[in-house]
Amino acid sequence: MELGARLVSVLLLWALQDGDWATSKALSWATQSPAPGSSFSPPPVVAVQCEDDRLVVSVNRDFFGTGRLVQAAELTLGPSACAPVPAEPLSKRVVFEVGLHECGSELQMTPDSLIYSTVLHYAPNLSQSPLVLRSSPVSVPIQCQYPRRDNVSSRGIQPTWVPFHSTLSREQRLKFSLRLMADDWSTERTSSAFQLGDLIHIQADVYTGYHVPLRLFVDSCTATLTPDPASVPYHVVIDFNGCLVDGQSRDSSSIFISPRPGQNVLRFLVDSFRFAQDSRNEIYITCHLKVTATDQAPSPLNKACSYNSTADEWLPVEGPRDICSCCQTGTCISLSSSRKRSLADQEPGNPSEFEADLMLGPLVLSEAENGPKSGQGNNVGGIPKWPELLLGLTVGIAATVCLLLGLIIGSHKFGSPCSRNV
């Protein structure tokens, strides 16, 4: 039996505001059982059919069981107040047909079920008799519950639960993050200040929640002097869909860390640097992150490759080495070539929920203090200057000689050769 043919759990709870007689009577009518021996069962006031990707709500216009028919305009569905399907004026039922995630419906996930919840609202129209209220507003909560696991046949068909992965991705967006980490990767770094020569430890990760297992990649990273990633000057750190090109720079040790601590985590090191032609000491690093399913093999478009200067070759964090060959030639399809590219320009089939642009900064860079600063007479780093060192040695030797002479002639009535006459 197809999933769409099932009528799953529908909760009809009436929210009574004034508790008037008509509403109470409608509630008792809607819940009462047929009389003993009677084969007639009155149709429900509100009937819900839960299909694969939508729900159909049918409402009896004799809403309170009093014979007074409510108007279609007095009924709306969901927080977005969706209107019913147009129907004949003499029709006895009002029908809503909406997608599961439309009209402001909410998705709740349990280990075994996906539960879509919405509310049917009735609000009496006061335009004809604004001073007299003959019925109360009513809200009817509605739920459609779908199993997250189901049995399927062994035939080559798509499992019935596959469409719900994309629905889940839309309802609960992935949480991407880009963080500065301590040198041992155990905690997040508390300072964004670095000296030239320091290694910047960067960790990218994504919280997947109830999604299928996902693998994270860093497509591109660009360093700039301002928060605008399209500003000039700029320095490309990662390019060509995951090539850490900064590692090709002379004296650079920038690499991806392998193996990953998890498929949803990617770590890499970047040598600290400053822009040579600019006196500003703050930089911003903007990276484009994306995810793929873990059962999708790494490829030239989905990779994490580091340059090994000793062997003059590119090595991937995972996957065959040939996926990094385009890093050497620069023939990969680069997502960072156009640095003004925004998430609104995603290609079809790559929804923005699975990609994100994140920024680190400002990172404060300063030059390492390796020696005395010009124009200063004070010592640098606690190392004494040579004249001071020689003076100290001379004083020490003189004191030692005086002490020895004092011991030798101490028994005579001569003053110490190192003492002053008073």
TrEMBL record:
Domain notes: The ZP domain is involved in the polymerization of the ZP proteins to form the zona pellucida.
Protein name per Swiss-Prot or TrEMBL: Zona pellucida sperm-binding protein 3
Locations listed in the record: Zona pellucida; Cell membrane
Processing after translation: Proteolytically cleaved before the transmembrane segment to yield the secreted ectodomain incorporated in the zona pellucida.
Gene this chain is encoded by: ZP3
Record's bilayer topology term: Single-pass type I membrane protein
Signal peptide span: 1-22
Assembly description: Polymers of ZP2 and ZP3 organized into long filaments cross-linked by ZP1 homodimers. Interacts with ZP1 and ZP2.
Transmembrane segments: 389-410
SMART domains documented for this protein: ZP
Keywords, alphabetical: Cell membrane, Cleavage on pair of basic residues, Disulfide bond, Extracellular matrix, Glycoprotein, Membrane, Secreted, Signal, Transmembrane, Transmembrane helix
Sample GO molecular function, one term: acrosin binding
Protein family membership: Belongs to the ZP domain family. ZPC subfamily.
GO CC annotation: egg coat; plasma membrane
Organism the protein comes from: Trichosurus vulpecula
